[in-house]
Amino acid sequence: METEETREQHSGFASFSSPSSRSANVVPLDWSPDRRITRPLHCLRWLENRGAAAVASCSFSVERLKFVDNAGSEWKNVEERFHQIVTTRYGGRESVVKWSDFGTCIGMGESPEFAKQLLSALRGERKWKFDITKDELHKHWCRMTDPCFNSRTQLFFDMCDGDMDGRVTKMDIKQLILLSASTNKLLVRHEEAELYAGLVIQLLDIEKLGYIQAPQLQTLFKLSLPPAASAATPYRNATEKEPMLKAEILFRSQWRRAWVVLFWLAICLALFVWKFIQYSHRTAFQVMGYCLSTAKGSAETLKFNMAVILLPVCRNTITWLRRHRGISSVFPFNDNINFHKLIAGGIVVGVILHGGTHLACDFPRISDSDRSIFRQTIAARFGYHQPSYTQILATTEVATGIAIVVLMAIAFSLATKWPRRQSPSLPRSVRNVIGYNTFWYSHHLFILVYALLIVHSMFLFLTDKATEKTTWMYIAIPVLLYAGERIFRAIRSGSSDMEILKVSLYQGKVLSLKCQKPEGFRHKSGMYIFIQCPQISPFEWHPFSLTSGPKDDFLSVHIRSLGDWSYQLYSIFQEAILAGAKQYPKVYIDGPYGAASQDHVKYDIIVMIGLGIGATPFISILKDIAACENCRITKGPLKAYLYWVTREQSSFDWFKDVMKEIAETKQKQSVIEVFNFLSSIYQEGDARSALISVIQALYLANYGIDILSQTPVRTHFGRPNWFNIFSKLAQRHRGARIGVFYCGPFALARDLEKLCTKFSTQTTTRFVFHKENY
């Protein structure tokens, strides 16, 4: 018997609007066993009218129907793999390979079942499971790479023709659909495959013979491709501009960061030089020399940096400052975390200089200095007793300093990339005790650090003057501001427990929470909130982008389980649903807070790029634009592109309703263009995805629904070619200023930023890159 859990796994998601558990089987289209194509002629006319343009412009060209990938397109690569298998398995004694090695030889090793079907079609015999010689392999390779399109479509037809009688029936097509779906990691049920096969037969079998032949399949391939997005009418700005120099692009994109960093460095340098010169004229200089000046100069920069490091994490203040366009145009608020890290690096340098010169130079010189010089200079500060090195280490000043360094070292090391993200390169025993939670808790050692810093600054070897004990002057305002923010957050979040309206669990361990919007809660599209679950921890707060629009009367977030806290959150909600609990676990929110995507209102044209769950910041933006009744009057983008790249077909369920809502109104479609990319499917042009592409085009033409995303938005195969995408955008929007917003892994961020610079320098279109960075 099929359980609730197994039905949930097959359906792709389970949606819950009440504490009681219920599951829903999801079919990639409005399916029914008795459904028939009611518009076959309409479908054919659509394909005929648009097929020519598609073949010319679509990224998938039927003339590139490939049975081998790039690694197998050269015979020498196939031959090399053949010899490698022969050498490895037979020690070079044989000159044949097993039939099961055919896929590996042609570069299709990760698709063994498809390779078997292909070999069966190439051999054209019922008994085809025998060893392959090199000559036969070369003959098969020549046929697979035949430049003649009809020859390759005939080979594809032979793959469908299971009984090799020259006729392909509905059952033959169904079997190849299931094989193609499995090869591309798609979930297609037998009923769905039968419907798709019937779609092809009803369309092509005009004479109702119950089968089709090779020429009909060739016609279908030539006409079944939808037009590419690149065929859109070019948009030209009224005032064309000349391409900018690279130096100008760098200046325009980096000047805010540059002036802030240079100003910070200038202050640090000025403070260091000031104290360095000051202590070079003190009597203690005769004992410790330039070591003393270096230590005191670095100490002054440490005071400054220990104050400034709190400012970038005063999120409420930054969110408030973002609202003032004049201020936000000068300060790079999107880089607040990066600046926080930069200052932390400055503190590390300061600690090394200050602590290092004291321990390695100043203290040994004090303990080993000439007694007469000691008495004439600094003896009064030590009670006229020249201390030993050990006695100096035991003083309050040094003990607190060492304690501060130890606590800083712990917090700093656990905040680096590898421990915080539990890098697989670290030993398992280490990974078990590190992670985001460890980073979060260790970072709160700063409370003890600041307390020790005040004590450390009150006990100085060389002065009793209150005017020189200035640490509290540096840190007072930032500490009070930060403490005020934390108190304000605690009060606000304590009164903002979320009244959960709906919980949805999706494949990929994604949790969607839809909650009542608290009274007085106002946010802009692109903002994020912090979420706390007392059942997991009363202290941990984690940031998540809002996926609800500003005009919605609810708040929604989509949380993917990527860490220990999010796994626990998913688990407790799953358990509550399965147990039929009357109430959901309590959750508190804090926010909203500003993010980089808020800047989308500064541009007439925006490009949003989200990888996987990284699409969440842009969903609220799409909702906001779609909710606009007259986008040309209301302040905001005149054109918005969303490129969403995901590995799993089930990911489309996360925002399916939003995509349908966007596609419903023609006016909204003219403003918003959405491009879905499913990277688990082989690139368009690959024989392994060819039949899926054909069915996708047919169903979209007849019913207006994409079979992969279950929305009117067509899904593209494989990973995007970003160079081509930016090239088409630059051509379409000549002379325009385009905001590019990205949320995803850092590696692609660097590539996208380089492309923005490249096309800004080589075309009249200027691309401005922004990356989400909470």
TrEMBL record:
Keyword DNA repair appears in the UniProt entry: no
Pfam families for the chain: FAD_binding_8, Ferric_reduct, NAD_binding_6, NADPH_Ox
Segments traversing the membrane: 258-277, 342-360, 398-418, 439-459, 471-488
GO MF terms held by the record: metal ion binding; NAD(P)H oxidase H2O2-forming activity; peroxidase activity; superoxide-generating NAD(P)H oxidase activity
InterPro entries registered for this protein in UniProt: Cyt_b245_heavy_chain, EF-hand-dom_pair, EF_Hand_1_Ca_BS, FAD-bd_8, FAD-bd_FR_type, Fe3_Rdtase_TM_dom, Fe_red_NAD-bd_6, FNR_nucleotide-bd
GO cellular component, one term: plasma membrane
Domain FAD-binding FR-type, residue spans: 493-599
Subcellular location: Membrane
Keyword Plastid: no
Biased composition (Basic and acidic residues): 1-10
Low complexity biased stretches: 11-24
Alphabetical keyword list: Calcium, FAD, Flavoprotein, Membrane, Metal-binding, NADP, Oxidoreductase, Peroxidase, Transmembrane, Transmembrane helix
GO biological-process terms attached to the record: anatomical structure morphogenesis; defense response to bacterium
PROSITE patterns per the UniProt record, alphabetical: EF_HAND_1, FAD_FR
Region annotation Disordered: where it falls in the sequence: 1-25
Membrane topology reported for the UniProt record: Multi-pass membrane protein
Family to which the UniProt record says this protein belongs: Belongs to the RBOH (TC 5.B.1.3) family.
PANTHER family: NADPH OXIDASE, RESPIRATORY BURST OXIDASE HOMOLOG PROTEIN A-LIKE
UniProt name for this protein: FAD-binding FR-type domain-containing protein
Organism field: Rubroshorea leprosula
Biological classification of the source: Eukaryota, Viridiplantae, Streptophyta, Embryophyta, Tracheophyta
